[in-house]
Task: inverse folding
């Protein structure tokens, strides 16, 4: 398994951000992680990437316990919703810095960066300072930094937000290609069509608790008896929300 969690919990005082989460996600899976705002999605990702310590429970990513942060860093990539980048650097300088942190050789860095920079249409802007980048350009730099070292498991939090339609399509295509190369992708987004298009399995979290886990087709079948058969209706039923989260 690429991602394993057993009774993983994170409490902030009396607030249960994540409550007794158990998962077993195989290699090469695209796992869609859905939930309303404040349901525990980002906290779960922070637990899996060793940015937050669990209150109780255990988890391992690519066979590495989440408390072993140094070993974990080499096996995972993480794109948060708002990528942390050094604004005083150019895009090229920042990505080269990230690649060197992963101890990539110069030849590897040049080959991989050239490919990703061209694919995400950053050729004309890569030598500009990041402080002058748009939200979408920062997101592009963030995803390149997350995958430059070919991690075994990739965590993506709202990867298509802020991207124009062309870049969003490139992002979706790349996610599918990475999974085809046996990379596991843990994908959290509010854009339900993206999850429906890409995910092999969907987990729905509500108020810190995993309330459903199934394929997109199986989730849609939950509401078919009521005359509806779409992921939005299934999501709303599971989370008792009136509106699609934004």
Result:
């Amino acid at each position: 398994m690429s991602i394993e969690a057993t009774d993983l919990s994170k409490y902030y005082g009396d607030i249960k951000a994540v409550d007794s989460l158990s998962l077993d996600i195989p290699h090469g899976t695209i796992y869609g992680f859905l939930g309303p705002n404040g349901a525990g999605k980002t906290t779960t990702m922070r637990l899996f990437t060793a940015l937050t310590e669990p209150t109780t429970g255990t988890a391992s990513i690519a066979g590495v316990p989440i408390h072993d942060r140094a070993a974990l860093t080499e096996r995972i990539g993480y794109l948060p919703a708002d990528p942390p980048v050094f604004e005083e650097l150019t895009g090229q300088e920042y990505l080269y810095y990230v690649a060197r942190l992963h101890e990539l050789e110069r030849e590897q860095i040049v080959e991989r960066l050239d490919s990703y920079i061209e694919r995400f249409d950053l050729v004309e802007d890569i030598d500009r300072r990041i402080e002058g980048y748009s939200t979408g350009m920062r997101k592009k730099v963030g995803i390149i930094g997350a995958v430059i070292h070919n991690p075994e498991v990739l965590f993506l939090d709202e990867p298509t937000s802020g991207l124009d339609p062309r870049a969003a399509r490139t992002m979706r295509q790349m996610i599918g290609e990475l999974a085809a190369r046996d990379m596991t992708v843990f994908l959290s987004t509010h854009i339900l069509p993206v999850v429906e298009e890409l995910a092999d399995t969907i987990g729905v979290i509500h108020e810190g608790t995993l309330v459903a886990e199934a394929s997109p087709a199986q989730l849609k079948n939950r509401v078919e008896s009521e005359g509806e058969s779409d992921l939005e209706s299934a999501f709303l039923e599971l989370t008792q929300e009136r509106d699609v989260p934004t």
The beta strands are 3-12, 15-25, 30-34, 56-61, 64-65, 76-79, 153-157, 184-188, 201-206, 209-214. Confidence is low (pLDDT under 50) at residues 241-246. The chain has nine helices and ten strands. The first helix runs from residue 41 to 48.
